[in-house]
Design goal:
The protein has 222 residues and is of the alpha/beta class. It contains seven helices and eight strands. Strands 4-3-2-5-6-7 form a six-stranded mixed sheet, with helices on both faces. Strands 1-8 form a two-stranded antiparallel sheet. Strand 2, helix 1 and strand 3 form a beta-alpha-beta unit. Helix 1 packs antiparallel against helix 2. It is globular and about 35 Å long.
């Protein structure tokens, strides 16, 4: 497709660091659109489940959490090892329902709560800890089908997360890239190893979205 740009820089190497990943799924009203039958939200759920299925095969020690966001963000499951809690994660995905608005800032803040150490809070993780202290890779996959239209500007929180070593992958979905806030999502996203290309892709159909999430199940290489 014209805008399909699969992010490179992931692999399934057993020698790479274990990963803690939060999947943040847009739950705004437009996710109920049926251009991806039965709906965009159902397609996003299927893609998240495909990621978990692949992670169980290639990196069962990795932890995955599930967050959704509309006017506010909700945690459906804090990060658990996929090798032990796959059924719990699937159940959490199934609980996602749509709300009002699109608050990407809330999604990033909620996701960031789980990406510090067990003994430190989110603020401490953001401002006091260096990326070199991480024993694992910390990562967010943020999926959106529209424009940020509620809450504060998400770019400052995205920058703070990236500055402490959190990798952010952004995925825009829908029928047309013009309906997605691509410029903002590219700013929020981390950069590929080339230091120039953002870790962003627009996906125009369900099968490509599932393939993208299966690819994102691999570990980051830097």
């Amino acid at each position: 497709m014209r805008y399909l740009s699969f992010a490179s820089g992931t692999n399934g190497s057993a020698t790479s660091r274990p990963e803690r990943l939060v999947i943040a799924i847009d739950a705004s009203p437009s996710m109920e659109d049926t251009d991806w039958p039965p709906s965009r939200l159902d397609a996003a759920k299927e893609a998240a489940a495909a990621l978990i299925e692949r992670k169980q095969r290639i990196a069962p020690e990795d932890e995955v959490g599930i967050v959704s966001y509309a006017d506010k963000a909700s945690t459906h499951c804090s990060p658990f090892a996929v090798g032990k809690e796959k059924a719990l994660l699937y159940k959490a995905i199934g609980k996602i329902k749509t709300g009002m608005w699109t608050n990407i800032t809330a999604a990033l803040k909620e996701s960031g709560k789980f990406l510090g150490t067990e003994s430190s809070g989110f603020v401490k993780a953001l401002f006091l800890r260096a990326p070199s202290q991480e024993l694992r890779s910390n990562r967010i996959i943020l999926l959106s089908d529209g424009f940020h239209n509620h809450g504060d500007d998400p770019e400052p929180i995205a920058t703070r997360l990236k500055n402490v070593g959190v990798c952010i992958d952004c995925v825009g979905i829908g029928g047309d890239p013009d309906c997605v806030d691509e410029d903002r999502l590219k700013e929020i996203a981390s950069l590929q190893p080339d230091g120039v290309t953002p870790r962003y892709a627009f996906i125009g159909d369900k099968s490509d979205l599932i393939a993208k999430f299966e690819q994102l199940a691999g570990h980051i290489t830097r």
